[in-house]
What we know:
By secondary structure, the chain is mainly α. It has helices spanning about 5-15, 20-30, 40-55, 60-75, 80-95, 105-115, 120-130, 135-150, 165-175. It has 2 domains: about 1-110, no CATH class; about 120-178, no CATH class.
Amino acid sequence: MEKLNGIQFLNNLLAQEPSKIIDWIRNIREKREVLPQNFNWLGLAEGCLSRTYEDNNLLWARAAIDTYYLLAGIESNGDDYLLSIMRLRVYLINKLGAVDNDPILDFRQVVNRFFEKLTIPFSEVQKKVDIWTKLDIEQIKELRKIKNQLAIFNGLDTSLLNPYPELTEWMLIKDKLP
């Protein structure tokens, strides 16, 4: 069989069932498969994401998440891919409901991830929020990063926030961040 170029290979992958893509990604991670040269990982992630949004299919979501995790490990802007994962999870939680201990729909995991990524305590951010225009660029970037992380919770059913008063506090200052 002739070798497929990257675009053909990507299109063939996206024509498969999501379980096949999940298996293929696992084989790549375990170095049991060889990638075509210059493979478009972001294209795969976005293709799987698009399929997820079409019918809220958790298998397509798993394929998208696995791809984003792989991207996060190989790209310098890995945090952006991790945010994409969290956005997708919150979207699906809103559509399908939170399910404890589910690898995609467990809201606690999303909240825990937010708090794990914080590099500045709430008390410090609270002091900086009203004076952010006077801060140096690195501090402003850090505050913006927090705002971006909080944005994943936009549009979320607010009843999900009730068990997390600390997160609710963060949400109250979100709009004041740069």
